[in-house]
Amino acid sequence: MTKGQLPMEVPLYEKERLDDLLTHHLRIIQSDEVFSFSMDAVLLARFAAVPKRGKIIDLCTGNGVIPLLLSTRTEAQIEGIEIQPRLADMARRSIQLNALQDRVTIREGDLRELVQQTGHGAYDALTVNPPYMPLTGGDLKLNRHQAIARHEIHCTLEEVISSSMRLLRTGGKLSMVHKPQRLGEIMTLLRQYRLEPKVIRFVHPRAGMEANMVLIEALRDGKPDVRVLPPLIVYEENGEYCKEIYEIYYGSKEGK
C-alpha cells in the first residue's frame, strides 16, 4: 500500500482526503465540506489531563481527531460522541484506518442524553472542544456542518458543562478549549456545576497580542485552587512556529 492509500476495507468517499497527523504514523479522514480540525483541537489533546488507564470521553468529537491524538498518550479506553452522522462515520473510519478499534469507540448521538446510556460518573476524564459562538446573531451563512461545529445549535455552553459534570466521577478531570471572551461565563458555569477550575493557560498568536484561545482544566468536586500557566505563543516574529508548537506538532523543532 503506497502513501495516501487506505486499506481496502476503509473507504474514502467523494471530496474526502487523507491527512497526516504528524505523530505516531496516525492519519485522519477529512473533508472541507464538513469541518476539518484546527490547532485548538491539537493543543487540547496535548494539554488534557488524562489517566494512564480508565475511561475517557471526548464530547463534540467531530471527525475524531482528539481521540486519535489521545491514544498516543494513554492506555485508557477512549470514546468520542458526535451528533452529526457524517462526521461520526468519518471518525469511525479513521479509527479503523489506524487499527485502534480495540481502544477507541465513536458514538453517534446527543451529548446531553449520553448519561442516560452510561450512567452518572462513568468517566475518569473528559475533553471537549465545543462550539464557541452562542446562537445570537453571528454568521450562520455556513453550510450546516460548519454552522453546527461553530455555533451552539445542538448544545449550549451550559449544557456541555452540566453534561460533563454528570459524566465525570468525583475527582475526574474536564479539559476544555474555548475563546477567552467567554472565560467569565465558563468559570461561573464550571463552579455552578461542581467542576472546580484548576489550571488555565492562554494561547496567543504572537507575543504582545491578545489571547485567542484559552485552555482550562477543572476537577469534579475539587477545592478552590487555580493555577495560571505561562502563556503559549504560537508564532515567532519571523512567522515560524515557536519551539513549543513545533514540539506539540512534530515532537521537536528538528522533527519537521
Key phrases:
256 residues; alpha/beta; 9-stranded mixed sheet
Give structural notes:
This protein has 256 residues and is an alpha/beta fold. The protein is 27% helix and 26% strand. It has eight helices and eleven strands. It has helices at residues 39-47, 65-70, 85-97, 115-118, 144-150, 157-167, 183-192, 243-250, and strands at residues 17-20, 27-30, 55-59, 77-82, 104-108, 123-128, 168-178, 195-206, 213-220, 227-228, 232-235. The strands form two sheets. Strands 3, 4, 5, 6, 7, 8, 9, 10 and 11 form a nine-stranded mixed β-sheet that branches. It is globular. The two termini are 24 Å apart.
What is the number of helices? 8
| Spatial extent as radius of gyration | 18 Å
Described by the principal axes of the CA atoms, the overall outline is: globular
Q: How would you characterize the largest beta sheet? A: 9 strands, mixed
The mean pLDDT is: 90
Give helix and strand order, one letter per element, not per position: EEHEHEHEHEHHEHEEEEH
Number of E strands: 11
Portion of residues in beta strands equals: 25-35%
Span between termini? 24 Å
Which structural category fits the helices and strands? alpha/beta
Helix content: 25-40%
Unreliable stretches (pLDDT < 50, length at least 5) are none
